[in-house]
Design a protein that fits this description.
Keywords: Membrane, Transmembrane, Transmembrane helix. This is AGAP008958-PA-like protein. With 183 residues, the protein is of the alpha+beta class. It has a single domain, classed as Ganglioside GM2 activator (Ganglioside M2 Activator Protein, Chain: A), CATH 2.70.220.10. 16% of the residues lie in helices and 43% in strands. It has three helices and nine strands; from the N terminus they run αββββββααβββ. The longest helix is centred in the first third of the chain and has 15 residues. The radius of gyration is 20 Å and the shape is globular. Bound molecules: 2-acetamido-2-deoxy-beta-D-glucopyranose (2 copies).
Length: 183
């Protein structure tokens, strides 16, 4: 006869639940703090239907940008989604602007692929232009599966390589991660 111990049962149930829990990520907010003379971020997050938000709008590159402008990032998490953020040890690689865009193409293709007029990988300097984002749903599968639900915020900061302490550009994007079982 074949029997399953309580411990084995617990493991099986845990595996089943982990397989079932998948996260739905929704854009929550996009905000530019400063640096409009370099790049102006005119993006809004809107409710698209009951369960999905989209990002919509235009990013204007206002003057040529190259790798002398270095972009760094910081990630914050709010478990309760109530703006009590904690710094989280994860980031995009810090690099010059052209390299930063190239890295997005390489590692986060789904994030940039349908942005109209996004600089091509290797394009440098990036000249003045308007980049259009139309009703973009946050792409599934972009975030590591290990991330906890709640509000996640990435702050992107730009400064000249020669003067890193003098911040010239800052924007933030937040994404709400919901447990799919509860929506
Ligand atoms: C909302 O829109 C998204 C994206 O088009 C779609 O995948 C989803 O099924 C829609 N949900 C509802 C409830 O209509
Ligand atoms: C996004 O912007 C376009 C053009 O600016 C507009 O037609 C569309 O309705 C917007 N989407 C939402 C969900 O508001």
């Amino acid at each position: 006869m074949w029997s399953v111990s309580y411990a084995q049962l617990l493991i099986i149930v845990t595996i089943l639940i982990e397989a079932l829990v998948c996260y739905k990520a929704n854009y929550e907010r996009v905000e530019q703090v400063f640096g409009q003379e370099y790049a102006e971020i005119d993006l809004r997050v809107r409710k698209y239907n009951r369960t999905t938000t989209v990002m919509n709008g235009t990013m204007y590159i206002r003057q040529p940008l190259d790798d002398n402008m270095v972009f760094s990032s910081d990630v914050f998490h709010s478990r309760l989604g109530n703006q009590q953020f904690q710094h989280y040890p994860m980031r995009l690689p810090t690099s010059g602007y052209c390299q930063f865009i190239e890295n997005l193409h390489k590692e986060y293709k789904a994030v940039v692929e349908d942005m109209v007029n996004i600089p091509n990988p290797g394009e440098c300097p990036v000249t003045e232009r308007a980049i259009y984002i139309h009703d973009k749903v946050f792409p599934p599968g972009v975030l590591p599966e290990s991330l906890a639900p709640g509000l996640w915020k990435i702050v992107i900061t730009g400064a000249l390589v020669t003067k890193p302490e003098n911040i010239l550009f800052r924007m933030m994007v937040s994404v709400r991660l919901l447990d799919d079982l509860f929506i």
